[in-house]
Amino acid sequence: MSLLSVQNLGKAFRSYRSEWQRFARWFGIPAKPSEEHWVIRHVNFDIQPGEAIGIIGQNGAGKSTLLKMITGTLQPTEGQVQVNGRIAAILELGMGFSPELTGRQNVFHAAGLMGFSAEQIQQAMPDIEAFAEIGEYFDEPVRTYSSGMQMRVAFSVATANRPEILIVDEALAVGDAAFQRKCHRRIESFINDGTSLLFVSHDIEGVKKLCEKALYLDQGRLAIFGDAKTVCDQYETMLFGGSRAIESAGSVTDTNNALHPASLIDSSLFGSQEVTYGNGGATIERVWIENSAKQEANILVSREEFSVCYLVRFHKECARPVVAMLIKTLEGIALYGTDSKSLRKTLGDVQPGATLLVRFRMKCYLSAGTYFLNCGIRDHLDDEVFLHRRVDVMMFKVIKESDLGQAGFANLCTDLLVERP
Amino acid sequence: MFGMLRSLWQYRHFVLSSIRNEFISRFARSKLGGLWMIINPLAQVAIYALILSNVLAAKLPGIDNKYAYAIYLMAGLLAWTLFSEIISRCLNLFIEQGNLMKKMSFPRITLPVIVVGSCLFNNILLFVAMLGIFALLGHQFSAAMLWLIPLTLAVVMLALGIGLIVGIMNVFIRDIGQAIPIILQVWFWFTPIVYPENIIPEDYRHLLNLNPMYPITSAYHQVLVYGNAPSLDSIAIISGIALVLMLLSLFLFRRASAEMVDVL
Questions:
Q1: If you ran DSSP here, which 8-state letter would residue A338 be given?
Q2: Domain-ending residue, one of A219, A235, A251
Q3: Which of A119, A174, A185, A367 could pair covalently with A406 via S-S, beta carbons 3.0-4.6 A apart?
């Protein structure tokens, strides 16, 4: 028998012309909703004991709504959810904690909220205290806790007893790395003992690692349900296809990133963060990065040779334009920028309709992380006037060349020499 | 209905610990702690008594204690504070607990039960403090005070009935949350608590019968001030109304719980 069975599940949020119509409906007086908004509809799936299932989909695809209906906080509008066992949801840790109470009192209260009796809680208390590892703070008011300590206590209560179904939402950012490992170990041991896991995440790699099956929700419909790897790959293709459609709808035609091996392209880096402006003298039509093998990529390996490339089309006559590029961190800190002027290269005069392909070849002395790229083309006389500038035109990721640890943004290629003088 | 009771029983521990935690949180780090709960209403009584006792004392028939007015006032306030506290807390209950209702799955019925529990506890403390003051003022205790048990029950039912209905409606129409406190104020002054009913002109006195709190406060007066049994007819009628209101509110509650989460 399946542990969780979801049949033809649907949820509609209804609004009425007047709230009084809603009240009237409770008394059996028929009233038609003025608007019905289906967030999720026709979803069917079953889960067997011990299965780990990833739930993926873009923001607003209905993931949270689905989870809320499974946990029972939201009532389905149609269809049903059958649950054979206890559900524990780690959706929001520390719900219902009050700052003036001690950790112990809060644990008592929170476990009560989960439906445990006083005796059951008393029994589990030593385990909870031991797992949270916050020492004497356990008997201090929660207001004196750091947020990490609060999370530790909250996670310990939420997982004090093995549930039949465990729901974990996204960033399980519980305290420090060591404690996170401990949390993941506990979740894994639950799965081994027959708990089913529902894991909601945007982190495709995480889903592939933790789950054997995945469920892809697209605009409230169950797009695919099956083997995690297949579903994740499909999801990435769709994400990628969708994002391309949006970009080409804009004024700038962009055929970036067409058909590449998945390992070179991380589709989660596509976004609409771009800001663009200029005096109309030229258009930067296409921006891409080539890796050392001359393949288009947005994932680079640290110390790899790469090129920032772009294609410019000129609309007006222009004397000796200057091409420029800049790399920034996610926080907007400029890391490195250069232009043709400082590189002592003159582009010459261009006629309207002319196109130029620009390639900045360099070595990636960045450490692992995500970075933004700016491109621009300027008038050579006035540094302030841009013919066209594309700010944050693309994101790219740099991954470590090896497992060696590194901190900061730059990779200074260290050799360590130790001597005993 | 039975399902509600069963889940309440299953969550009894949560209800009790919620009530307890509420008091702990409220008085944590204050030196006088729970005393504040008594000081507050007593200060109110003292203010009314100081200002109004000379004006109104003469109009209280049938008792010769010179503190009669203060005793009368306290008896009425005992009923009114319970009534208005339950209503005003139910009014914003679901909005305040919205986040919890959206994120955690637990029987929603525990929420109003927690409110009633903590208001009742408040009321008992107030009653105990009043008894102390009655003793100081030389007022006689009588066995009629046992009537307070069914009377309190009637107040709770009436207040919970009204409170749940306005609380549920307030989730959908937020104007109700603004209107109810005003209505409660007006209602307070239309109920003979601060003044004796005989100062109302004869011609208008029959209007009092429209006020469901009037039979209750006068029963409290009978029991606490005069030591008599209350008039059973009017109490029976009010209890009937209260029961109907409460059943109606529970019906609404069952119907609305699902939709409440949708709009919170």
A1: E
A2: A235
A3: A367
> What is the C-alpha to C-alpha distance for residues A366 and A368, in angstroms, rounded to an integer?
7
- CATH number of the domain encompassing residue A60: 3.40.50.300
Q: What average pLDDT score do residues A45-54 get? A: 86
The answer to whether residue B182 neighbours chain A at the CB level (below 8 Å) is: no
Other Cβ atoms within 10 Å of A157 Cβ, number: 28
A176 and A257 in a single domain? The answer is no
Q: Rg for chain A (alpha carbons), in Å? A: 27
Summarize pLDDT for A98-116 with one digit per residue, the tens.
888 888 888 888 888 888 8
Confidence check: pLDDT of B33 > 80: no
Give A-chain residues touching B24 at CB under 8 angstroms: 100-101, 105
Stretch A348-367: mean pLDDT, rounded?
89
Instruction: Assess B175–A contact: CB distance below 8 Å, yes or no.
Output: no
| Same-domain status, A210 and A282 | no
| pTM for the full predicted model | 0.69
Structure tokens of A195?
A: 């708990």
* Same-domain check for residues A268 and A226: no
Question: Checking DSSP bridges between strand A322-329 and strand A355-363, what pairing results, if any?
Answer: unpaired
Q: What is the mean pLDDT of residues B68-76?
A: 83
Amino acid in position A408: G
Confidence at B178, pLDDT banded by 50, 70, 90: very high
Report which secondary-structure segment, H or E, holds A239: helix A228-249
Hey, what are B51's tokens? 């200002």
Q: Are A69 and A220 in contact (CB under 8 A)?
A: no
* pLDDT score, position B157: 92
Which of A19, A86, A120, A165 to probe the B interface (max B CBs under 10 A)? Answer: A19
pLDDT of amino acid A251:
34
Q: Is A177 helix (H, G, I), strand (E, B) or coil?
A: helix
B104 contact A CB<8A: yes
Please tell me what DSSP assigns to residue A366: B
**What values do phi and psi take at B66, rounded to 5?**
-75, -10
- Per the structure, the count of domains in chain A is 2
Instruction: Note whether residue A417 is domain-resident.
Output: no
Tell me which residue range forms the domain holding A93. Answer: 4-235
Q: Please, what's the b/e burial string for A25-41 (b: 16 or more CB within 10 A of its CB; e: otherwise)?
A: bbeeeebeeeeeebbbb
Confirm or reject contact between B166 and chain A (CB < 8 A). no
From the list B25, B173, B256, which residue is nearest A26 (CB)?
A: B256
In this structure, is residue A247 part of a structural domain?
yes
